[in-house]
């Protein structure tokens, strides 16, 4: 799977910091210092500040009234709330797009699923997350509603970061088995069944997160 080169330094800093937050390299509560980041990434202060502002909008960085910045801390409550929001948006997109899928779309879905599984096998969580998200994106974009996809994109990074799953996490299994079942149903022509199975992924996923994560809270 190929990735586009960010068009600006700000976009490059946003992607780098987002990846570090999603993978847990920058854990929740980490103090963010402009000058230190600029020096580490080899850029000026301006793209760092612009990137921090963008990641604040995405909910990945908290900016306190005194202007100090920290990687957003995570609770079970906001993790489950994000999954609920993601479910509403993504399932709406799936419902609107599923009847527009062609054989070409289904071929792309199968390709993304393979990339998803291969990336997990290689321990590449970022690539796995991107391929898994693309699986849903293909169907949502088939609806023709790009505004919805923009909203989904805003939630995806926050949801991925909150879970910060390793490649070995059992939480991936809901998506692997769900995507496989959806592909089979689509190839059988059962669009309603595919939608129902997609919705079930979120039910299973939420249950797993509630049961297995944040158990000490």
TrEMBL record:
Positions of transmembrane segments: none
Domain HTH gntR-type: 7-74
GO molecular function, one term: DNA-binding transcription factor activity
Matches recorded under SMART domains: FCD (SM00895), HTH_GNTR (SM00345)
Alphabetically ordered keywords of this record: DNA-binding, Transcription, Transcription regulation
One Pfam assignment: GntR
PANTHER family for this protein: GLUCONATE OPERON TRANSCRIPTIONAL REPRESSOR, TRANSCRIPTIONAL REGULATOR, GNTR FAMILY
Protein name, entry field: DNA-binding GntR family transcriptional regulator
Species in which this protein is naturally found: Paractinoplanes abujensis
């Amino acid at each position: 799977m190929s990735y586009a080169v960010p068009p600006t330094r700000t976009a490059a800093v946003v992607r780098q910091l987002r990846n570090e937050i999603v993978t847990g390299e920058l854990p929740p509560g980490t103090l963010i210092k402009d000058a230190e980041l600029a020096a580490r990434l080899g850029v000026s202060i301006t793209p760092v500040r612009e990137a921090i502002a963008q990641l604040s909008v995405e909910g990945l960085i908290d900016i306190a009234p005194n202007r100090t910045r920290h990687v957003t801390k995570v609770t079970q409550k906001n993790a489950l709330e994000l999954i609920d929001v993601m479910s509403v948006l993504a399932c709406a997109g799936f419902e609107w797009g599923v009847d527009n899928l062609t054989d070409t779309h289904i071929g792309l879905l199968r390709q993304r699923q393979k990339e998803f599984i291969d990336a997990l096998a290689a321990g590449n969580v970022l690539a796995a997350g991107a391929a898994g998200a693309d699986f849903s994106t293909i169907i949502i974009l088939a609806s023709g509603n790009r505004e919805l996809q923009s909203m989904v994109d805003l939630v995806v990074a926050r949801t991925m970061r909150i879970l910060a799953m390793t490649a070995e996490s059992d939480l991936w299994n809901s998506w692997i088995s769900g995507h496989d079942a959806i592909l089979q149903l689509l190839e059988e022509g059962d669009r309603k069944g595919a939608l129902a199975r997609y919705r079930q992924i979120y039910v299973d996923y939420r249950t797993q997160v509630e049961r297995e994560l944040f158990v000490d809270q």
